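User: Second chain of the day. Same drill as before.
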Amino acid sequence: MLVSLTVGKVDAGVTVLLTPDKRLIEFPSILLPPDISSGSIVDITVSRNTASETAAELSFRRLQDQIYASFGADRPLAPQLRCRNATQTSVVLEWDPIHLATADLVGLALFRNNQKAGNIPRPLAMHSTKISGLAVDTEYVFHLVLRTTAGTYTSDKVAVRTHKMTDLSGITITTGIMPGATREALSQAVERIGAKVVEGVRIDTTHFVTTEGRGVQWEKAVEMNIPVVRPEWVEACEKNGRILGVTKFYLDAVRPPVDERPTAPQTQKELPEQPKVETPVAESSAPALVAPQSGEVSAAQRKEEGGRSDEDEESSSSEEESEAADKVLRPSVDEQKVRADERDAQGLAARPKPTVEDEDDQDDDEDDNNEEKPPAAEKGTRSPEEQRRITDDRLKRVHAEVAKQEREIGLARRWAEANKAKKEADRAIKRAAAVAKQARQIELARQWVEADRAKKEADRAKERQIELARQWDEADRAKKEADRAVKRAAERARLERENELIGQSIQDLIVGGAWRRDGVRMNLLMDRRLEIHELLEEM
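Assistant: Same format as last time:
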């Protein structure tokens, strides 16, 4: 559609155009030819661009399909939890690698009997955990809770019953260096008691059997605080028909003479402390009673000083058997000393211990850490770019005010011209009054019609001014919203960058092995990363 318009007043921002029926149209001056002036006639063609409209609609639909294919076609899955092994006092759980789809991980927690036992560290890399310090012949129910930015997912509940003292099927043995005949006899004894032998030290390994304290597997067992015993321990368990304590069968323990009964007490020299290293297996921190060793030492001293009667030997032998049975339910003295020294030296456990007793303390520590963290740094001084943007905004407001004043001046000028025309019409009416009354009435009516039209035009101009002011207010609000969106985007970019740096720091600690020594920093980094994930989720 072609429209011919007459140029009225030309301003810096807006040009007034007149239609053939004397209607006013405000048009942006930048869209008109540069050489126009008042009185020029311009032709404007207006048409609907259906091709561009169709292309834009197709592009929008393709974008919707891409968004759905990227974020809506897949979703996270609940963890698949199962029991890998169980003993008299511990349970090893494992699960499939977690599937997050396009969501972000918030945390993975283990629950025991519907109570939170602890958080799983590095859930993307760890797929198993060990819970120690459980009661004998007791049923426990475990399940995992996966928290992501797409929601919370709970695994199926797994019921596990710890073994009785006479059930030796939960024993998992890793063998070290030993003679071939001893290895063969050990394999037969393990098969008879229903236990199993695995290759290499794993998270479910309960005992490391060897005759020599050397080798890579032996070092790994010592590092993981796995009891290192002699093959005689398996034979003793088979002979007694129940699991026995490992104190007398340590690799460095004093062996009883051949001519004496195996159950007779012997003097046990002080065992060397095992290396104080962090164990990668999550263990329970429940306190365990320590069996007194004074019975063994006193019995050995009495025997060295001259011996006792057969009745005394039999009574001390029975005491030793009862003590060995009790030690199965609690760690040895040396192991407890090593773990106590580790906690005193480092101030934390080797790994988060998924037990109910430690959960309250752990939550309190996390709350204290969150309270002690300083707030994020506020916005600093303005950059040159921000200062330049503020100056541009001020110039725009000044230009808008100038344009508004010019429109008000033009309106006042039109009002003055209308008043002048009215006065001239009045004088013309007075001069024509003597000619004819009818002519005077016709002329007066015509002048009144023109005045009414001018008044309506003025009213419409005022309405346009009000509408323009409203549009300016909307534009200002839109600009403020855009500024807030830019600030939110900048804050989100900063948080994402900080999250990447924290992830790199955690990766460096894990690769370099420093997380074993600097566990406090590792926990602080993990807590900060969870806080950043929560802030990003709120955005």
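Residues 258-322, 324-379 have pLDDT under 50 and may be disordered.

User: Great, on to the next one.
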